[in-house]
Known about the structure:
The complex is a heterodimer. By secondary structure, chain A is mostly helical. Helix content of chain A is 66%, strand content 0%. Chain A contains 2 helices and no strands. Chain A has helices at residues 8-33, 43-61. The longest helix of chain A has 26 residues, at 8-33. Chain B is mostly helical. Chain B is globular, with a radius of gyration of 23 Å. In chain B, α12 crosses α23. Chain B is built from 24 helices and no strands. The longest helix of chain B is centred in the middle third of the chain and has 39 residues, at 181-219.
Amino acid sequence: MHSSGIPIWFFIGILLTAYGALIFGYGLYELSTGTMAVPNYHASIWWGALMLVLGLFYDLRFRPGRNG
Amino acid sequence: MYGLVPLPVAAGLRHSAAALLSLSAPSLAHLSLLDIAVIAIYFVMVIWIGFYLKGQANTSEEFFMAGREMTAWIAGLSFVSANLGSLELMGWAGSAYQYGILAAHWYWVGAIPAMLFLGMVMMPFYYVCKTHSVPGYLKLRYGQGSSTVAAVSFAFMTVLMSGVNMFAMAEVMKIVLGWDLNFSIIVSSLAVAAYVALGGLRSAIFNEVLQFVLIWGGALLVPILGLIETGGWTGFKARLAHNIADGVTPAGDYTHMWRSMGHFADNPMGIHWTGILFGLGFAISFGYWTTDFLVVQRVLAANSLRSARLAPVIGSFFKMAVPFIVILPGLLGLVVLQNTDGSLMHLVGENVVAAHPGAGLHSYNEVLPLMMVRYLGPGLLGLGITALIAGFMSGMAGNVSAFTAIFTYDIYQPHIVKHARDEHYVLVGRIVTVVGVVISIGAAYLVMNAAGIMDYVQALFSFFISPLLGVVLLGMFWKRATKAGGFWGLLMGTLTSIGLWAWVKADPSALRYVAISPDAKDMAENMYRALWSVTTSVGVNVIVSMFTKPRPMAELAGVVYGATPLPTEEPVPYYKNEWFWTAIAVVIFLALNIYFW
């Protein structure tokens, strides 16, 4: 949007990266301790990992200063 | 926005308010430290965005119209997000639990044709005349009188709705998490005031896009996990049929949209297909999606005519997908929600919950939070709750930013200070934003202490939108429509709506005349009232216009079809062409309706 500024997609990337890392990390902890809180098919792991990957992609793709 | 919230939600919030204020409702969920961290990160992010965008909101065009720099994707996501508030999510999920997939009508026939019509047919006129608002268009087409009437009524409605959102968020946080009402109102209003006053419309749009991602990230898991548990759509239908056969779920057709619409008495909503198709599919949805400034403002901020036309088309694809995260969880709730003893949970109406305090009953409107609690563990639950918070805050911010633009451009500038420097209007905009939030807080406490007002707010919204549609459509597509025709059409359409509403309020049996059937129920009233209202608006406009002097053709350039040379756009490959994507959207829309016929 603003070629010289920070695009919205970068903010979204940061948010997804932070959430993905937290939720994926917790999912691994749950797996290692065997204390899954709800019958959610290890959703914290795969959903957290998906958000983390998407977030990192957006961070790199839309980082400030990168054109396009 | 609030006008598309199902009726039971308003009534439900009223009952819940009474329960909450007596502090008798236990919370549904308990947050872990991880969940709280997820919510805190969201608040840090929105404030960061507000401060960052402060430097890009220096002129009135930047502050009120986001510099008209939004890409089609950003404008499109913001456009659809403006109608994806948490009131809608929770309300329609509850309606799906209660009425089945009929609730999806509000997302498909009640939205898609209107969104595509806005993009393909109406947007060129809004965009070419460079209006900053819908009342601004009325001023160009019909003169100051109609514009001021529309601006004042809209400004009044937006701050009221912002207050309703604020109260609703506080109430939901109380139900789900046990948070104090005052705490939720103060935190949310401070955050909204900060980021809208700092960054203007651009900040509101950024946060709507953020909200859009959060809602999908936080809510999409619920139907996915629900379908895994039930064995897919086929498995769900089998379990539902089994429950109905066993008598544990009320009998009814929960999975078809049109086949029970032949008569008012054939479906639990008490609606006929004519009401859905013409009342909802035309009078209400076209009124909302094409003339409500809250949503149109997002598209007007697009960076080109092509982007402005593509934005509603992009929005329509996501709108068609929303039932997956709203309607489906409500349906799945019918078969997967269980009490602590393992028996099937039965959700009930808010009046039943209010009549049995302490019985541990849950209302239809709580189905979405209940499904989140069922499927989402620590962290993911925080994400789901953050999505709801973001939806509410976005609803507030959307209303406040629209209020600010309408007040400054359509009330303050033409009537109070006509010729001031640009900086003056930006300063007024920032001050009005804060004032708008303060009035919203007042409205929130008003609703809290006199919750019956919620019903009236919803009715008020419907009074103005449908007549406005009649006036805008005729103004845009009929050169003969005159200033007097527009004014009287708007006025008589509004009075018709108010009159019919008051008639049914005073004598509920009058519904049989308004909706043309003794079997009609509350939801049908809204649809037929909107239909009569737009019909009156158009009829009066036509009759008065025929007897009054039309404006010269030269004055209509840029605002009326046939008098406006539309700019030719650069040819693009078919996959970037708005007509191509409109055709795809139409095919998917028809396919969905046929599949779930």
